[in-house]
Amino acid sequence: MTIYPAIDIKQGKCVRLVQGKFSDMTVYSDSPVQMAKKWERLGAKYIHLVDLDGARTGQSINSGIIKEIAKSVTVPVQLGGGIRSLETIKDMLDHGVARVILGTSAVQNPLLLKEAVAKYKEKIVVGIDAKDGKVAIEGWEKVSSFSAVHFANTMQEIGVKTIIYTDISRDGMLKGPNIDAIRVMVESCTIDVIASGGVSSINDIEQLKQTGVEGVIIGKALYTENVDLKDALEIAEER
Questions:
Q1: 8 catalytic, yes or no?
Q2: Dihedral angle computed from the Cα positions of residues 105, 106, 109 and 113, in that order, rounded to the nearest 10 degrees
């Protein structure tokens, strides 16, 4: 299982939101680049980046920092938030981002998703953000009519190899992930599922590993030191 330390970027800073609310934000570092180097130094094998400005508006003001992170670390990085065109996907992949995550655009623009998967294959990941079992879009500020599990199966049919499943109600709350919903998602499709949202302790990571997820994204718990990255990596790498 892979542990993905999360770096959420807003206006050039490393921040965390609570339940995706931009009004409830904490700044943890003025340098996302240094934060990425820190997680790499502590043993992370992959880093998860979110462009919050891009997620909300569809326009990125953080692309320079994201490219600098990709250049500054030797481990792969994946990026989500506001990626809504093939041009942006190509630009990020050309500048060292290993995988690009489509969220809102996967829901609203299936043609873009199909073209991206056909061209870039496993480098395209789909983020499924769920609220009460329905897919949320546009920086989590709107909820669509799609059920998360049904949408995951549709992604699988298109050829997507990996999804990131986030339960918004748990995100940034440090109240533990929705283990039952994640288990249902893993059992409902054959593609890799990365769990995100709510991780608050080493016990959460142990429970998530038992569901069969490919990986776990950890955000706030690392920044508040509720979870030590080295401890999380040890559990993830145990056979």
A1: yes
A2: 110
Q: Which two tokens stand for residue 197?
A: 């949202």
Tens of pLDDT, residue by residue over 42-78, are 999 999 999 999 888 877 789 999 999 999 999 999 9
> Which among 51, 53, 129, 192 is annotated as catalytic?
129
Give yes or no for residue 171 having a pLDDT over 80. Answer: no
Tally Cβ neighbours within 10 Å of residue 142. Answer: 12
Q: Choose among 192, 197, 160: nearest CA to 181.
A: 197
pLDDT tens, residue by residue, 129-159: 888 788 877 655 577 778 999 999 999 999 9
Of the listed 8, 51, 53, 204, which one is catalytic?
Answer: 8
Structural domains for the chain: 2-233 (3.20.20.70)
Residue 33 near residue 72 (C-beta atoms within 8 A):
yes
Cβ-based neighbour number of residue 94 at 10 Å: 9
**pTM, rounded to two decimals:** 0.93
Per the annotation, the verdict on 30 as an active-site residue is no
Determine the 3-state secondary structure of 237 from DSSP: helix
